[in-house]
Every structure is written in C-alpha cells, then in structure tokens.
Amino acid sequence: MPSSTMSTTDLSADEVAAEACPVQQVLDRVSSKWSIAVIVAANRGPVRFTELERAIHGVSRRMLTLTLRNLERDGLLTRTVYPTVPPRVEYELTPMARELHEYLVGLTAWAERHRDAIGAAREAFDRSQA
Q1: Per-residue pLDDT reduced to its tens digit, 36-53
Q2: CA-CA distances (angstroms) from residue 77 to 18, 90, 109, 129?
Q3: Is 80's pLDDT higher than 70?
Q4: 43, 94 in Cβ contact below 8 A?
Q5: Residues contacting residue 110 through CB under 8 Å, at least 6 positions apart
Q6: By CB neighbour count within 10 A (0-12 exposed, 13-18 middle, 19+ buried), where does 97 fall?
C-alpha cells in the first residue's frame, strides 16, 4: 500500500516486533504449564521443594528445578536457604508474582464464564470448514 494512503494506525513489522517481543518473552515464561502451577501452589506462603513436587502432579524433579530457577531469575520467586542440617529451602512469591496470581485468577474466571461460548464457536467454525 502506498505510504500516502496508510493511516496513522498502520504499524510496520518492525514496530510490532519491537513492541511485542519483550511482552512475548514474559508471557512465554509465566504462561507455561509448570510456572502457573508453581505460582498457584506457592500463593499461600513459603513452600518447600518437596511440597511443590507433591502438589504439582506430573512435574519431574528436573522440570520443577528449572521452573523454580527461571521464576527466581525473573524476580517472581525468592529462594531462602536456612542453615540447618540438612539445609531447609523455601520458595515464596514476590509481590510482583502475587499481582500476577491475581490476574491468573481473573483469567481463569473469564475462561470459565466463556467456556461454553468458545466451545460453541469452535464447533460452528469446524462445521463451516468441513
């Protein structure tokens, strides 16, 4: 389209990428299955690794370790090591993660309210494509 006919709301691919890239990186991290599970499980207060492992069905020790490390790196979890024998380690959500949890609860409520409508829309779309 010639530039003289472009509206002021038209965005270039570079502009979209510049705006979306940082957001996408954060959403990729916090929307992963295991990250959401850890955030939900740790929302009630400090929690130990073994408590998380028991609470999150299907997660391997390696995946839980990687998820905890990444959430800590992103500033969503704090890790506290207590000088006991054996050492006791607890994970706790940061204020930023608590805020994220509130949004996850809101998103869950939205999904529950619209589940039937989304299902019906999918069925209608699939019928129209057959």
Answers
A1: 999 999 999 999 999 999
A2: 27, 10, 24, 45
A3: yes
A4: no
A5: none
A6: buried
In sign, the C-alpha dihedral spanning 52, 54, 55, 59 is: positive
Q: Contact, 91 vs 46, CB < 8 A?
A: yes
Cis peptide before 95 (omega within 30 of 0): no
DSSP 10: -
Alpha-carbon distances, residue 20 vs 12, 14, 104 (angstroms):
12, 10, 20
Name residue 129's amino acid.
Q
SS3 87: coil
Q: In terms of DSSP H, where are the helices of the chain?
A: 13-30, 33-41, 49-55, 61-73, 95-129
What is the b/e burial string over 66-86, where b = at least 16 CB atoms within 10 angstroms of the residue's CB?
ebbebbeebebbeeeeeeeee
